[in-house]
Design goal:
Layout (H helix, E strand, L loop, with lengths): L1 E12 L6 E12 L3 E5 L6 H8 L7 E6 L2 E2 L6 H9 E4 L3 H4 L6 H11 L5 H14 L16 H13 L5 E5 L7 H18 L3 E5 L2 H7 L2 E6 L2 E7 H6 L4 H9 L10 H7 L1
Parallel strand pairs: 3-8, 3-9, 6-7, 7-8
Antiparallel strand pairs: 1-2, 1-4, 4-5, 9-10
Helix pairs in contact: 4-5, 4-6, 6-7, 7-11
């Protein structure tokens, strides 16, 4: 059963002769409890699509359905429910976390905003969330500036999970991290996805990463999906010339399981 269904999505920027479609009639499905990767170079439209799904960008046409509800039609109170149902994890955890709030305050705010009323129950939930993302309880009083990039991204993931979303949009969540840290964060997300049966739209430019974490992959170029299929097949047997270029541009992609990143992931 599908959790997210995007049909003929269009996002147009500019007007008149300067208008162009950043997303051009894209259709994409994320089955419930699965990870779908969206791959493309900078400017391909993948992040614009992600922002539409998360309610941060207006669409010019098409539909975005989550569990049968049209997300593009949400208004008023429904927007808060949409924010609960769809959570986004950003590329840079430092800029997405409030530098003036401790880890505990950040997670407590997420819990309180989305309906957890009791301070005692929220404190217990904060501890559970930290344990879930493999962080020690002592970080509850730390500020983002005093944490590593990998730890900050784990906090961002914990904040996302605090509201029990139906869909997670992960937008280049490891690209700002060192290779060794990338592997640990990807392992964590994969474990959480399987444990909690999460539905994830995973956006990246790295085909080796998407092959590791995603069940299926769609490749975007100039706003359109040019190829879609099982992730391993996309990497091993790319059909579209653009996908072939992406594969060829990654050193030793045919042996991606032995490169530094995936060596770390498999450790």
């Amino acid at each position: 059963m599908a959790e997210l269904v995007i049909e003929d999505l269009v996002v147009t920027f500019g007007t008149g002769r300067t208008a162009f479609n950043a997303v051009d009639r894209v259709s994409l499905t994320v089955p419930r409890g699965s990870v779908v990767g969206l791959v493309g170079e900078s400017g391909s439209g993948k992040s614009t699509l992600a922002r539409v799904v998360a309610g941060m960008q207006t669409a010019s046409g098409g539909t975005v359905m989550l569990g049968g509800q049209d997300l593009l039609a949400t208004r008023g109170r429904d927007r808060r429910k949409r924010a609960t149902d769809v959570q986004m994890i950003f590329q840079d955890p430092f800029s997405s976390l409030n530098p003036r709030m401790t880890v505990g305050e950040t997670l407590d705010e997420a819990l309180a905003t989305h309906g957890s009323a009791s301070a005692k129950s929220r404190a217990a939930s904060v501890r559970e969330l930290l344990e879930l993302v493999r962080l020690k309880s002592g970080v509850v009083d730390q500020y983002p500036a005093h944490m590593s990039g990998g730890m900050r991204q784990r906090v961002a993931i914990a904040r996302c999970l605090a509201v029990r979303p139906r869909l997670i949009v992960a937008d280049e969540i490891t690209s700002a991290l060192d290779a060794s840290v990338q592997g640990a964060v990807l392992n964590l997300l994969r474990d959480l996805q399987r444990e909690l049966e999460l539905s994830v739209l995973f956006i990246t430019h790295n085909l080796a990463v998407v092959r590791y974490i995603a069940d299926r992959t769609a490749v975007m170029r100039r706003g359109a999906v040019v190829e879609e299929g099982e992730s391993d097949t996309i990497v091993r047997e790319p059909r579209h010339p653009y996908t072939q270029e992406l594969v060829a541009a990654i050193p030793r992609i045919e042996n991606a399981g032995t490169d530094r990143l995936l060596r770390t992931i498999g450790a």
